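Hey, can you fold this?
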Amino acid sequence: MSDTLKDYYALFGVLPSIEQAALSAVYRALIKRYHPDIYSGGREDAERISRDLNEAYEVLGDPARRADYDRKRAASGEFSGDYQQAGRSDSRTRDEAGEVTKDWEFVVRYYPAVESQRVRLVQLSSALGFSFQIAVLESRVFDNPQKTANGMIAEYLRQYFGSHETVQQFVLRAVQAGRKDVALEVNRAIRALGTPKRHQVENFLERIRSHCDWDENSNMPPPINRYDGDRATNTETNAATTAGTTGAQDVDDAVDSKVRWFLFGLAILGILVIAAILGK
């Protein structure tokens, strides 16, 4: 019987909504990499990881058992996933994309937008980026990767950090700043206490800041954009504006040059006329 306290989805580094075919593809890639005969790490680690993967897949790989597992998790109140387990899967999954590199490179050749969305997801979680690759390759839906990526980010944040958007944005800033310990503390608090009510959010986040000794306003890099799309970035927009300004300046310079030559010609003509009159 499955242990509902074990987060099998986090073990695979996938979201609960993952399609069955994509889940199978993730399992095949992981079990191949951690086969004791080929894994580059210790054999004991490979055997332990392989056992965990097989245990999880015995449940999630069977649609009926997976549905039963999901029902038991919901009934037990396990709405928030185990971010610590997801973190371990994330560190293991950093190189997993190598298993699908050839197919992915071919897809990117014809649909380059998929790669920019994968990079977005990797900023948040390497495992999430890998899951995105698998989902795209399995579904063969390449023309709207932004929609897929946005959905995965929204579900990931909801799965591990609750449904309140202010808390989710706080976590995004923490992860972007390299403070995954802050994200882990948020996850632990929500798993123990539940998602804070609207009037409790600021106090909840202040306690997280104090406990983790984090000033989120110091040296903050640009945030991960959970709704990033095909719109121009600030850099692209500024470049376009600069290009437009430069083009307009070039036109003005050309007009000024023509005027100067025209006036110069009139001056020469006037001198010649005066010289002719005086010569008479």
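Oh, and this one too while you're at it.
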Amino acid sequence: MYDPYKTLGVNKDADAGIIKKAFFTLAKEHHPDKGGNPEKFKQINEAYDTLKDPQKRQNFDLGGYSDNARRGQRPGAGAFSFSFGGSNGHNGIDGFDEVIRDFFHSGPTRQMHRQTMRNKDVKITVQCTLEDIYFQNEKELSVTTPNGQNKNVKLRIPVDADNGTIIRFKGLGDSSYRELEPGNLLVHIKIQPNETYTRNNFDLFQDYKVSILDIITGCDLHIDHISNTKIKSSIDEGAQPNQTMRFKGKGMPKKDGTFGDLYMQIKPFTPTTVNKKIIKYIRDNNNA
């Protein structure tokens, strides 16, 4: 049998302050966002809805039911929300400010505005590559919400995506409680390391191996680029190891349609097989 006094754990002669304190304590303990039982939280809300209103409380005390129960409804049904009641401060309730910060915007209580309650957000992490960002690739996501719904979502990787970027899909989160607004789907972007490039904002940095012999004599370069094209360049005779070459506009794309730059550092290596005549020539002319 429905008994709001038992639900809140108070005596029938409890005053409004005791009832309010009991409600806040239980609401904080059982709030779904804090890992509590949603059904228990709803029962607590319904009980407080009955006892905070003097007329509803009197109706229950006299007949054992509230106005809603007379109409065949559970108390509070149809509008799953709760009110802290009154506007005269916390009435001496310890921890009142801390409790309502869980349900309201932060700041002094007299300056707070009520937040709309809604279902939980669903958070997922999506791995993407540097190439996904460069080409703004589209990914198809299959998301299962807490109430068992399967949702297919198309995600286009934004051109300015970075580690920690959050993409929000409004209303695609949990919808367990139909009387509340649906939660949102929050997609967290995590970028996988790239074997060729490191990235700083929109600029790319690359180490490029060149034979020490080519560095000595100079050579033409045909460099594979993230755009699936080749960059044609050259290094001069007698170039220095570790020198950096800048390729303007060959970095990552930006929202305005321009591109960052590519910085390529020459990294010399010694070939494992070298013509003996070349080695002899270098020896003979090393001190020339």
